Amino acid sequence: MKRKLKVIPYNPKLIKRANYLRKNVTPGEKKLWSYLRNRQMYGYHFYRQKPANNYIIDFFCNDLLLAIEIDGQSHDGNYDYDTQRQNILENLGIHFLRFSEKEMMQDLDNVLRCIEAWILDHEPTPNPSQEGNALTF
Predict the structure, then answer these.
(1) Which pTM was predicted?
(2) Fewer CB in 10 Å around end: N or C, the chain?
């Protein structure tokens, strides 16, 4: 039996902005996307620049409810905003991993290990087999 995915509400007005961000990717986002796209990370599907609530998440996996954020210059001086945004999205059940643009460019191997470790620690367990639960008469 397939697990039902949680629907994360979003503001439809963000679609145009998300499309713009997908076309104007940072170097760090481009590097990470080359490892997340096409279900390369343990078979999980990730979205790029995914609207959620009133925000846009850099990378998002609905199966894991995992957001990956790359903090570049646009985040400088925005700590309070980023914290508030993350708290709101965490209240929807979304988990966060944050990396800096510098980490993406200088230590990508470690970033990938962190993401892989998080997935292995948090991936959903399959539904138990229904075999043996048959009624006997």
Answers:
(1) 0.85
(2) C
